[in-house]
Design goal:
This protein is α/β, with parallel strands linked by helices and about 325 residues long. The chain has three domains: about 80 residues, Winged helix-like DNA-binding domain superfamily/Winged helix DNA-binding domain (Arc Repressor Mutant, subunit A), CATH 1.10.10; about 100 residues, D-Maltodextrin-Binding Protein, domain 2, CATH 3.40.190; about 100 residues, D-Maltodextrin-Binding Protein, domain 2 (3-Layer(aba) Sandwich), CATH 3.40.190.290. It has nine helices and 14 strands. The protein has a five-stranded mixed beta sheet with strand order 4-3-5-14-6, covered by helices on one side. Strands 12-7-13 form a three-stranded antiparallel beta sheet. The termini are far apart.
């Protein structure tokens, strides 16, 4: 007999507590379900179920076999779903949560997704904090510096570095810092986000002797990425931000990279989604579109700066 059908009959008998109930669930006769279970026992040479006139219970061997059958049947369902999803079109609303730096980066992917599939729409929610995707009913998150929540499935999308930068006008007027220790005498623009309890006044660097932090201060604090970019471009001070946020300004020369040799640490941008048994086609499809488009982005526009020789802090003695 078909082994998978026999396994399914056996599992249903255990789940439903009897042969008759299992037969109704499977739309089979009770005798057919009995035959399926008996064929398993005959092939294995062990008794899987203890039977009485009113109840059935698992034997020791039956317990072990039941657990494996449940796993095998679940994997078969997953295989079917994976193949079927290749043919199914995305449908419905994709509820998407992103970091504040993400909207501009994924705008092209959202436009492509909604243009390709008539039956979809996107609800985009931007938060600094990582929300509870299940509790707040979101399908997917794309985060810079993502959470370490191990209950979420994580797919790496890109790697980036932070960059310090200032306008040519600021550097001409105030000089160019050659070591992070010199930031104390510069006006540092602060990204501040009270919703996640981060003040942005500790800037992290990596030097020959390991990682270290420098406390900075300045005349401007904001939780707006756009406000921070405008302020540094206008020559108000220095900024520390993900390099991809300043890529256009760095390319045009509106901003000059600083201290790149001390900013070698790499960070991740990840897609995160709940550990669901079956990933909806709309989620899988959107992730693939984002991954494809992210491969076209220059995430490290100042990579050449990393070759500049490191300079040690000047002595203050």
């Amino acid at each position: 007999m078909d082994r998978v059908s026999s396994m399914l009959s056996f599992v249903k008998v255990v789940d439903k507590g009897g042969f008759s109930s299992a037969a109704r669930e499977l739309n089979l006769s009770t005798s057919m379900v009995t035959t399926h279970v008996k064929s398993l026992e005959d092939r294995l040479g062990v008794r899987l179920l203890n039977r009485t006139t009113r109840t059935v219970s698992l034997t020791e061997a039956g317990h072990a076999y039941y657990d494996r059958c449940v796993q095998i049947l679940s994997e078969l369902d997953d295989a079917d779903e994976a193949v079927q999803s290749l043919q199914a079109k995305p449908r419905g609303t994709l509820r998407l949560n992103v970091s504040p730096a993400m909207p501009a980066l994924i705008a092209a992917s959202v436009a492509e997704f909604t243009a390709l599939y008539d039956g979809v729409s996107v609800h985009l929610n931007m938060t600094s904090r990582m929300i509870d995707l299940v509790e707040e009913e979101f399908d997917l998150a794309i985060r810079v510096l993502p959470t370490a929540d191990s209950s979420l499935i994580r797919r790496h999308l890109a790697t980036f570095r932070f960059i310090a930068a200032a306008s040519p006008e600021y550097i001409k007027k105030h000089g160019r810092p050659e070591h992070p220790s010199e930031l104390a005498r510069h006006n540092c623009l602060i990204f501040y986000d009270a919703s996640v309890g981060k003040g942005g006044k500790e800037w992290n660097f990596a030097g020959p002797d390991g990682n270290f932090a420098v406390h900075v201060h300045g005349s401007f604090e904001t939780n707006s990425i756009h406000g921070l970019r405008a302020a540094v471009t206008l020559g108000q001070g220095l900024v520390l931000a993900p390099a991809f946020l300043l890529a256009d300004e760095l390319k045009s020369g509106a901003l000059i990279p600083l201290l790149s040799e001390f900013l070698s640490t790499e960070y991740s941008i990840d897609a995160l989604y709940p550990n669901r048994e079956h990933l909806p086609t709309k989620v899988r499809t959107f992730i693939e579109i984002v991954a494809k488009n992210f491969r076209q982005i220059n995430w490290d526009p100042c990579a050449h700066e990393m070759n500049r020789p490191k300079k040690r802090a000047k002595s203050t003695a």
